[in-house]
What does this fold into?
Amino acid sequence: MILRHRSKPLPLQLIDAAIPRLPQHSKFLTELKKDAKIRQQGYNGEIKVDYFIDSLAPKYTILHDVYLRENGRNFQIDSLVIADHSIFIVDSKNYTGSITFNTILKQLTRNDGKVESGYEYPITQVENQSFHMQNWLVQHKVTGIPIYGYVAIADPSTIIKVEGNEQEIAEVVGHGATIPKMIMDKDGAMGRTGKEKLQAYQIGKIILRECREFNINMFKHYGMRPTDILPGVICPECKLLGMSRVHSSWECKRCGCHSRTAHLNALSDYFLLVNDLISNSECMRFLGLNSRHAVSRILKNSNLIYYPHVRKWGKPEN
It folds into this structure.
């Protein structure tokens, strides 16, 4: 059973919403586009690995994108599999080209055919995640459960090399397609030792109840200001910012696209980037309208909730 599915990470949602709302000459665009590419690549890799991990759902309990707090520190796990006798942490890595694990120096390098780059050692990362998870479980009165970590390489064309102990790497690193069998084999071995069967669903529900959503304060992180975000409705076809309202519809002056719902994406951007609540006057400014009546009608028909004590609208809670 999959108790927690993966969704697009909030930091990536923020960046993707901000990029088309910045002036073309903005000094923040280069860094935002670079970060968007890196985060999107990581997210794509996680989705690829999820495809294989999810094959275990009929047998085990699975939670994706686990974000917990332990001893004043937050820690994040790409995928958590609660099997019959053990818990497994899967850390997804989306590298291209060839990667080399150096078991002596505890170092990972990647060669894309042009440049050789160094990265944080993934096995150390997953060991730290296992340590935090073990402590978190103890704090929640769940003890005596072995935890094992695996590093899943998302791209099947990525070449994995080892300098040092190959067996050490082979036991914890594999392409995404190989991870489910590694988990089943390890859990089966634990079962043959007489290890008591876990109450996987109950443990999963305890973890799910405490899961948070990882996010960033984009303005603080990049040094931006809310006033850097340009208002307006973005054309769903050509992506031009600044559609015009014409007869209960939106019209793009560049490509001629007509849309009755383009304002919904603009409102979504507002709630992501500006504020959790929006007033009628603020909605007029952000959508570029001068009719309070038209804005009232839009807000009432946008599946939002009106909060009379502050006279503002907000998204319904999930």
The CA atoms of residues 129 and 182 lie 19 Å apart. Residues 29-53 form the longest helix (25 residues). Residues 2-210 form a domain with the Trna Endonuclease; Chain: A, domain 1 fold (CATH 3.40.1350.10).
